[in-house]
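re: that complex we talked abt at group meeting.

here r the seqs, copy pasted straight from the sheet so there may be weird spacing, ignore it
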Amino acid sequence: MTDIVIAGIGQTPVGEHWDMSLRSLAFQAIQAAIQDSGGLKPQALYVGNMLAANLSRQAHLGALLADYAGLTGIEAETVEAGGASGGAALRQGYLAVASGLVDVALVAGVEKNTDVIGPDLEAALATLTDADYESIHGLTLTAQAALIARRYMLENHVPADGLAGFPLTAHANGAGNKNAMYRKAIALDLYQKGEPVSEPLNIFDVAPNADGAAALVLTHRELLPKSFPHPVIRLAASTVASDTLALAERSDPLWFAAAQASVEQALQKAGIPREQLDLFEYYDAFSIFAALSLEAAGFAKRGKAWKLAGDGSIALTGQLPCATLGGLKARGNPGGATGVYQAVEAAAQLRGQAGANQVTGARYALIQCLGGPASIAVTHILESMA
Amino acid sequence: MEIPRHWRLKQQRYGLIGEVCPHCDTKIFPPRDICPACGQEAKTSFAFSGRGEVYSFTTIYEAPTGFDETAPYTVALVKLKEGPLVTAQLTDLGETQPEIGMPVEMVTRRLRSDGDERGMLIYGYKFRPVLR
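got the structure back, here u go
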């Protein structure tokens, strides 16, 4: 099989875009990605979106966005996998190009969270849990993470501020990303004073739901324009695994089995040991998710990943830089766009375009987005061909 | 109004009726017809005792629509005596601070309201500290 490459990347700043609609956000990212690719002409559009039907009263984003972007006529559809929707859209783009049926695929993730606030936003987000056995009991995504965190912290003797290293790392990195929602480092004492959200989580353990759009242009390496101006980035692996939707139905709620399976398969596909990975964009929608993702990916023993966050191992200069442009916590969590942001950011790192946050000499990047508590895990490995 | 959606779950909501696998004897809740332990067909009904202990719990302050009137409230993963975990609210706590390992038992309580004054009241299982 020929190499499938990320030819173009585009993103909007993540934040509260009261002045921009779902379609205008998506268009901005799409336009940037196509331009960045040297003007490749997409034959198909895969939209990653999680809740537009609910939050924006708008379904059918394939037709809407293809048309709005001036691409009327091309294949277009939406891909939904909860919080992993963006990664799942990238997966569909990868499959389309890999199949040989599509030469140039456009992947766009978009979410417009801020048109709805308070109980209605919580209710929309809760539709991503099991309706019959979780959300009917008032469970929310944040509470799911809190249930995991409380048990994890008890079993592993984690102190009350033991997960602080994850948001501290994210915020330190967000400071160097002009597209991040929060661009200011935070100190440990601020974390310690954080307002409780669902104990043991405080406000700094929960990534902000935000608006944003990101886009990618995928193609075969040999179809790149002769004058292609960037280092070539290849998708070395693309994998997806699933677990129970309801947290309660797992034999072990403290283990992200789907995350583990998709990383193992991805490493096998890429043909590299995990030690060769230069950075990891994990899914830190909640601090505890970052810890469990590091454990599932094999970078820490069970119950120990929180120590990596405290000792600098995941900082930009550490052994395995994580959330290198702020992660979900500081860049912001624009739902179905998040997985596409991760790919855009990892591609920027591998191209050497990450500015103040550049990870020196990065060749392999691992990115992973999760739907719910890793009910779906979508994993990609990007490789620089420079 | 979503009457059938809740009506068809009445056995689970009011009776904690799940299944038992005829092949490996695993107790299953909620019912799913395929045993998660051995992968074989499992359609035999099984009524859980409603006894268990708290596996984990948290408090929700920012609640979804339909639950915002009762916030803050406590949700838990309850480890049933027969094996499975179940998601449910803790109730009748009074002055009791919930903790992991606390013995609890099932009771039937109102889960949520439909919002308008003619809307349906949905009842189902919650768990309270075991009465001594």
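couple things i noticed - The radius of gyration of chain B is 16 Å. Chain B has one domain: 3-129.
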